[in-house]
Structure formats: structure tokens, C-alpha cells
């Protein structure tokens, strides 16, 4: 364990790796409120075990490069894909969006390199977050729900009328087409921040916020890749099989 963290100022910890700001936030240490304090002092003030905090900081640092990009050629079961995507949705809603909302709303505009840009971001981000969460719930209810029902029909049998109505109401091709049009959710924020522009002279407050936004957009790109390149192609095959089974059943009757 790196005990050197104990004496380091919060600003120095965050300056080395912006992601560590979110780790501190998890322990109730808002980096913007304790910017000029040593980690050990902050932990004592808050009654937090500094050893636990340091171990978590080190663990985050070590695992940062271990994220794997999904392989579209791997034979993932469709149930596994959907559960993975739902888990990612919950991470967005419960952790990432609230954290970003907190730092955007609670860092004073004057602390940003461009205060006017910060004011606009404070106005725009809550609207984006609200729309994004609504999109997630609708996607899970309608798109994932349809795919799960199709898969269940093939695996466990089906009611012909219910399946017929589902196939008339939904279409994987339509879902895929709509999804591609919605894939750039963060375009407005990206343009507002000039592509999350960071230079060697960028201040720590702006840097943390912009890098978090950029990382979130990258997460969304990976999420979209899984849906477009893995989930929907598999769902299309299941849909074709369900249509075939329904036609066969109709001929038997």
C-alpha cells in the first residue's frame, strides 16, 4: 500500500488521475470542497478509514486498463447480452450521471477556465440527463422487452395471437434504424465544450469535468456497439425464427 497518499493533497491526487476524484466522491470526499487539504486530514475530519480509501485508490489505478472491448464474433447468449446492458444502464443511472451532475452543479463557474461555458453546461446537463434516463427506461421496456418475449417464445413455446401482435407492433429493423439515429446523445454537450478540449494549461476543475464527460461518451459508444453489432443481429435471427414458427403453426391449423 502506498502510504504516500496519506500526506498528499487532494488536488495532487486528482491532478495525477482525474478518475480518482470519483473514488474520493464515493467516500463522501468532494474534491472541490477539500482541494487544498491532505487526504489524511480529510479522512480524520469525516471519520473515514484512510487505509481503506488508499487501497481503493490503488485498486482503481491498477484496474483502469483492464477493460475489455466486446467481441462481436463471440457466441454470447442473448439473455447475457441484455443483462449486461441493463447492468450498464443501472450504473449510468445510479453512479455516473449523479456523480457528473454533482461536480457540474457544485463547482462554481469562476473555477472553470471558461465561466460562461460552465454556466451553459450547468443548464444543459440536467436536461440531457433527464432525457437520457427516459430513453433508457423506454429502451428496456419496449426494445429489450420485445427481444426477451421473442426469445421466450422460441425457448418455451408461444401463444400465436400474442406473438402475431408483437410481430406486427415491433420490428428489429425499425428498432435498429431508430437506434442509429439516436446514437449521438452527447453531441450538444460535446459541441458546447469544444470536444471536451483539454490542453496542458487546462485547470484541474475543468479537466476533471471534461474528462468525465468524455469518458462517459466513450462508455456510450461501447454500449451502442454492443447493441448494434451484437444484440440486434442476434435478435434479428430470433425474430426470423419466431416468424417461421408462427407460419408453421398457422399451416398446421
In words, what does this structure look like?
This protein has helices spanning 4-7, 10-16, 20-26, 39-46, 50-63, 78-106, 115-156, 160-169, 172-181, 187-192, 204-252. With 253 residues, it is an all-alpha fold. It starts with a helix and ends with a helix. The relative contact order is 0.12.
Number of helices: 11
- In terms of quaternary structure, the protein is single chain
Task: Tell me the fraction of residues in β-strands, as a range.
Answer: under 5%
- Mass-distribution shape: elongated
**How many strand units?**
0
Task: State the distance separating the first and last CA atoms.
Answer: 71 Å
Supply Rg.
Answer: 23 Å
Helix content: over 70%
What's the domain count? 2
Main sheet makeup: none
- Structural class assignment: mainly alpha
Order of helices and strands: HHHHHHHHHHH
Mean pLDDT reading: 90
Low-confidence stretches: none
Kindly summarize this structure in a few lines.
By secondary structure, this protein is an all-alpha fold. It is 74% helix and 0% strand.
Name the features.
253 residues; mainly alpha; 74% helix; 0% strand; elongated
Layout of helices and strands, plus pairs?
Layout: H1 4-7, H2 10-16, H3 20-26, H4 39-46, H5 50-63, H6 78-106, H7 115-156, H8 160-169, H9 172-181, H10 187-192, H11 204-252
Amino acid at each position: 500500500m502506498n502510504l504516500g497518499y496519506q500526506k498528499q493533497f487532494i488536488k495532487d491526487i486528482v491532478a495525477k488521475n482525474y478518475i480518482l476524484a470519483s473514488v474520493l466522491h464515493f467516500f463522501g470526499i468532494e474534491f472541490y470542497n477539500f482541494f487544498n487539504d491532505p487526504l489524511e486530514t480529510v479522512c480524520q475530519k469525516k471519520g473515514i478509514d484512510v487505509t481503506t480509501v488508499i487501497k481503493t485508490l490503488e485498486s482503481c489505478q491498477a484496474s483502469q486498463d483492464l477493460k475489455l472491448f466486446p467481441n462481436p464474433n463471440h457466441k454470447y447468449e442473448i439473455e447475457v447480452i441484455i443483462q449486461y446492458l441493463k447492468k450498464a444502464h443501472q450504473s449510468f443511472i445510479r453512479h455516473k450521471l449523479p456523480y457528473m451532475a454533482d461536480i457540474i452543479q457544485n463547482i462554481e463557474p469562476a473555477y472553470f477556465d471558461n465561466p460562461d461555458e460552465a454556466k451553459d453546461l450547468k443548464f444543459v446537463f440536467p436536461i440531457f440527463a433527464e432525457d437520457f434516463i427516459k430513453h433508457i427506461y423506454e429502451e428496456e421496456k419496449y426494445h429489450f422487452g420485445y427481444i426477451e418475449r421473442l426469445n421466450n417464445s422460441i425457448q418455451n413455446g408461444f401463444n400465436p395471437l400474442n406473438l402475431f401482435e408483437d410481430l406486427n407492433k415491433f420490428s428489429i429493423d425499425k428498432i435498429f434504424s431508430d437506434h442509429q439515429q439516436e446514437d449521438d446523445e452527447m453531441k450538444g454537450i460535446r459541441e458546447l465544450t469544444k470536444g471536451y478540449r483539454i490542453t496542458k494549461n487546462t485547470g484541474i476543475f475543468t479537466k476533471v469535468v471534461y474528462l468525465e464527460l468524455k469518458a462517459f461518451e466513450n462508455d456510450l459508444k461501447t454500449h451502442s456497439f454492443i447493441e448494434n453489432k451484437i444484440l440486434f443481429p442476434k435478435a434479428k435471427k430470433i425474430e426470423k425464427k419466431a416468424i417461421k414458427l408462427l407460419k408453421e403453426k398457422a399451416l398446421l391449423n
